[in-house]
Write a structure and sequence with these properties.
The complex is a heterodimer. Chain A is of the alpha/beta class. Chain A has helices at about 45-55, 95-100, 110-115, 125-135, 150-165, 185-195, 205-210, 235-240; strands at about 10-15, 20-30, 35-40, 60-65, 80, 170-175, 200-205, 215-220, 225-230. In chain A, the strands form 2 sheets. Chain A has a 6-stranded mixed beta sheet, with helices on both faces. Chain A has a 3-stranded antiparallel beta sheet with strand order 2-1-4. In chain A, α2 runs parallel beside α5 and α4 packs across α5. The longest helix of chain A has 14 residues, at about 150-165. Chain B is mostly helical. Helices cover about 80% and strands about 0% of the residues of chain B. Chain B is built from 11 helices and no strands. In chain B, α1 crosses α2, α4 packs antiparallel against α5 and α9 (about 175-215) crosses α11 (about 250-270). The longest helix of chain B is centred in the C-terminal third of the chain and has 40 residues, at about 175-215. Chain B starts with a helix and ends in a 13-residue tail after the last helix. The chains are: A alpha/beta, B mainly alpha. At the A-B interface, α2, α3 and α5 of A face α7, α8 and α10 of B.
Amino acid sequence: MTEQQPVIEVHNVSFAYRDQPVLRHVTLDVMPGEFLGIVGPNAGGKSTLLKVILGLIEPDSGYVRVNGRNPHAACHRLGYVAQYPSFPRDFPITVEQVVMLGRIGANGCNGWLKGLLPGRYNKNDREIAHRVLAEVEADNLAERQIGSLSGGQLQRVLLARALAGEPRVLLLDEPTANIDQRLESDIFDLLKQLNQRMTILVVSHDIGFVSAYVTRVACINQTLVCHHTDAIDGQVIQELYGEDVRMVAHRH
Amino acid sequence: MLEFFHALADQSFLQAALLAGLLASIGCGVMGTYVVVKRIAFIAGGIAHSVLGGMGAAVYFGLDPNLGALLAAIVAALLIGWVRLNWRAQEDTLIGALWAIGMAVGILFIAKTPGYQSDLMSYLFGNILLVPQNSLWFMAALDGLLLLIVAAYHRQFLAVVFDEEFARLRGIPVTFFYLLLLVLVALTVVLLIQVVGLILVLALLTLPAAMAGHYVNSLGRMMLLATLIGSAVSVAGLALSYPPDLPTGPTIVLLAGAVYLVSVVFSNLKLRRPSHPADTEDGA
């Protein structure tokens, strides 16, 4: 495989919830090692685009390839951190068990028969779970019940769960939306570090903040509005949001 | 109470009742845990009540009512699972309808069955004192099957009940395991009907597991503790109901309800004292 082959190809993807178009003819390639910020207004289709890449949503037209394959066949290469945890906080489960769930299917997940195999975790699974917990600085939380964590701790644990599958690509939907603002840069510093060994796609509404971290920005408002490798100026933001937006200080 | 233990030593029907209570507790502990954490008590109730349709039909055609119950429970579980997966918006209406329609079908069949109709009450409210020997074997077989499947697939079930979207991303066939889980709940309903009847099933399917959930933080421990609580409640209910000749099923259910209330109060008191007082945001 040459360096030039994209790890994710989104080709002319359109999707509508009932009659409401969400994505229109989006084409986007992501190269290995990129740290891509996906920004845009609310309801602009950012989260939907992530779900299409993950294979959770089938596009109405167009296609997605991950490492040249259908997203379902490549799902063990993808790690995902959703915007809202979709489980009840009082669920009787420890942090370690949550992270271990990320090990399921880590050795490939193509074919429904494979999904029917009964199985246990092995020593390797446990070691990886503890390694990724240490990596997100949450190894001291392993025995805690998930509901006893603070917002920032929970976010780190969910990041660890995504990392436990040893993904090539990490996709995060508003990873800092539910946590204290002063912890936002902690999470992004961590992502920057992870970016040394994996491709990262992060959805954010905070264009100014993410542009300090990412290598490229894709702006989505149903269509791919802009696709810049360089700095974002007021002109682009106006194109994207359709109005003047206060520009946030922006460091590189 | 002493009278009960004397009678237990002599009377084989009491020994059978005790054994039936213990066998039912295994199912209620293991599957009740999933029902409680996945919050599908209403679905379990729908399955339990529509089982009467199958029992009535089996009685009408001269077959074993347990067989009718088993088939009806599995069909109801798959139907309700299909409703949930495809008509999420009207889930409660459709499950409520299936619940009542199943019972109506059962009552029509039983009404048209010639002969003595005493069985209806025991289907509805159970009669643990009349559990025949072959029902005990049937219950043991159901328990064995439940434990085998849960032991083999506990990872997949945990992933599906905890976070369906994430389970799907890990390549787990979520629909398959969700339906399998409902079928196992259906088997448990049939198991518990032997003891408390189909109307009271829901109490044993939820209360012991909900109580256990107050004290532990893993599904495995919750299953174990719920099984122990279920056993204690059924044995105590049997012992309490025997001397004054009360119906056993309702006694067990009332006892479970009372213990649950005490447990709620107790665990709330315990919660007042935080277990991680030194926590700050992010624990840094």
